[in-house]
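Late entry, guanosine-5',3'-tetraphosphate complex.
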Amino acid sequence: MGNHADEINRRRTFAIISHPDAGKTTLTEKFLLYGGAINLAGSVKGKATARHAVSDWMEIEKERGISVTSSVLQFQYDGFCINILDTPGHQDFSEDTYRTLMAADSAVMVIDASKGVEAQTRKLFKVCVMRKIPIFTFINKMDRDANDTFELLDDIEKELGIATCPINWPIGSGKGFKGVYDRETRSVITYSDTEKGTKEGQTTIIPLEEEDKLLSYIGDEAKDKLTDEIELLDGASAEYDLDNIRAGELTPVFFGSALTNFGVEIFLQHFLKMTTTPLPRKSDVGLVSPVENEFSAFVFKIQANMNKAHRDRIAFMRICSGKYESSMEVKHVQGGKVMRLSQPQQIMADERKILTEAYAGDIIGVFDPGIFSIGDTLCMPKEEFRYEGIPTFAPEHFARVRQLDTMKRKQFVKGITQIAQEGAIQIFQEFNTGMEEIIVGVVGVLQFDVLKYRLENEYNVEIRLENLPYEHIRWIENKDIDLDRLTGTSDMKKIKDLKGDPLLLFINQWSIGMTVERNEGLILSEFGRN
Ligand code: G4P
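Prediction complete; structure with ligand written out below:
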């Protein structure tokens, strides 16, 4: 115990989030340029190496041009071992993204300088703020005409309710982009366009005092504007405060251009100084220390069919403490079993690398014969604790599932149960019957298509979905309530989840209010229990 401290302390694990097209992929690729050994887990979305390697149900992804998988990348830089968790950008898959955020210690947020905060970013950012995940902002595409810098910062503060602290400040944008001013060293780093795919080009660093040199590089107009802006900024912006940054209450802001590779390494260096080593995690026996405790992990994502050549299911887990060694025995707490994780691996775009060791902060993928669920804990056989559950989001769309060939009942139940374990859908039953009638709930309607496609292609079962009009779901907190005597509105529907816990479906908020009013003492909750 504790002797893996150096390995753990050099780890940094962050999620990268953005609205589609803001430049997340490009920025990630530039990070990798600075890294040594590159392990590509999953894929960097849509780029040449990975595009063809994904499995067949990803056809949906290809057809619709969206990214449905979260992937993991690991690279080394300046003595650090960095894990990047990529997140899908499309809002129908936001639940997956939320879970990925649970596995990260901080988030890097990419914003398009000509667009500001966009819808998807807003949602994700809110989750970070709610969970107090430190957020590092990279305002990208400064080589294109950008919004006013103060407006961009205002936008972040207003839309997301978090203070901003610019670490550097752009000088112009688009054709007039001259570089950034570094506030700490009070010097200007000049912009130079570089070829795609190369490291940062020749930049010149000019201290503010060297006026003549500065003028010759950026010109009168830009110099005057910069002087004014620095004055405004020093007077008006939030002070740099590392504690606030780490508490997720202040976001440091950087400017750059991922495409032309300007400001990326500067960002990376500052980021590594500000971010933390893997953080302790909450469990039902208190905080678990990454360094002091032996191996433990939790499952944050399950994905079937990562690769056509391996028709299997992978459980992704974040190691929260200690070291994992191959063929080590671990306890799957929710399953109540001691087991060996079979062939833990980092999933590569088209190959898989078997791991012999991994440390707190790392993400491993483990072959899953259908036993893991999202949120499950793994620890040493002699221990027994559970990590804080991952909240499930209330589904907003519901449909009744009709199975077309009743002879395939077994495959159907297996398929739909496994897909539910992966967290892509939630399944419910009619209140008074069993598995004959299944109701499925999803957060985004695209999941209905994914369900249908996967049942057909992986389990050989055809289904028909009949949409139901409900939009709100509530769990009943009171254990002692008599469901038969519950008086709701005429459009209310009683169902139960797979554990047998009762739930109510409603068409609108008004019906929820009426039902609470009519049944004294009834307590309804928006969240299920893990
Ligand atoms: P995403 O992962 O966030 O969805 O964005 P991605 O990196 O794929 O970038 C979206 C588009 O924006 C790409 O152009 C990319 O080249 C461009 N881009 C990214 N960073 C910058 C930047 O700093 N400056 C400028 N000017 N453009 C940037 P594309 O034409 O859609 O794709 P591609 O053909 O270049 O690959």
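The radius of gyration is 25 Å. Will revisit in the morning.
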